[in-house]
Specification:
Number of strands: 8
Oligomer: single chain
Structural class: alpha+beta
Helix content: 40-55%
CATH architecture of the largest domain: Up-down Bundle
Order of helices and strands: HHHHHHEEEEEEEEHHHHHH
CATH topology of the largest domain: Butyryl-CoA Dehydrogenase, subunit A, domain 3
Radius of gyration: 22 Å
Strand content: 5-15%
Length: 395
Amino acid sequence: MPDVNIAAFRQEVRDFVAANLPDDIREKVSRYRDLDKSDYVRWQKILQDRGWLLGGWASEWGGAGWSPIQQLAFLQESGIAGAPMIIPYGVSMVGPVIQRFGTAEQKARHIPGIVSSDIWWCQGYSETGAGSDLASLKTSARRDGDHFVVNGSKMWTTEAHWADWMHCLVRTDASGRKQDGISFLLIDMQTPGITIRPIVTIDGQHHTNQIFFDDVRVPAENLVGEEGAGWKIAKFLLSHERLSISDTGPKLRLMNRLRDMNRAVQADPHVDPMLKATLARRLADVAVEIETLRAMEHYFVEGWDMGRPQGADASILKVRGTEILQKLSILATDLQGVHAASHDPDHLHRTADRPDTPAEIASAMTHQYLYGRCWSIFGGTNEVQRNLIARGALG
């Protein structure tokens, strides 16, 4: 595709978000309220009307064919501007998988619902005992005529309570190397035998779930690729997450929020001058770290765009992105002072028709702190990522 002026494109994204993001969604994001499924769907339909929902998809699938650098620019600028994230399970995960490995029938059935945002997906990967060590999964799929019979459980399944379909890794063969016996199934979440059990996390919110499969009959036509090819497909899918893995846009927006909070602290005559100086120094330190992360992210993505092997790049971005997010969230609570002890999960669901109270502001920032704990666990723990970095960098 022709060269794109990235600076001009960034401005175009900022202008589009400013003009088209619905006011009620903008208000929720700016106040760190929880978004509903309908909020994400509305925004994704607006992006699709503009031709930007599928920016990274090839034109043959209705995408814009953006380069990785252009995709990164969009993610950063829309995040800074307060737009909701694009929920990745359809657009960034199973959509590219079906394009690459799916049958003609699977493409015809599932791609249109992803494009329209009318069909919502979730990811059935992690299990108890098989999170970062995903190849240890035990959820089984036994072939029975023209169906697979699925039994087992998936854990930490984000937004499964919103999902119409799941893309799921299952074990179809336990006789050989554990990576070789995994297959990739598409499962209708309305199939009899599926039970969704909500999990309320440390922040008091319902983001994730445990899923139970009891003799769930899945048509064999829902197998993607060959039986036993699930590990290869899973690695392909994960390669499509690398652009958003450090999530710098929302971090930069949070950084701007902390600057506002710090200005209020610095102007407060009742705050000890030594504490003011300490908070200002910590804010400056983390500002340098996030700008360094942004520069490193750009360097890696530019290299991928030119064909450089990914290596341990994504693991480095994941670890540093997580560490910086947690530093930001700790500083956010410290800037709240005594109010930081207040956290009521209900505050995150209140309407934004009046100014926030100090307790509601504190709940929003404390939520960032509490939910930020899980970032070093999901997507492969930071400990596992460091092992990957060591192997990639040191051999």
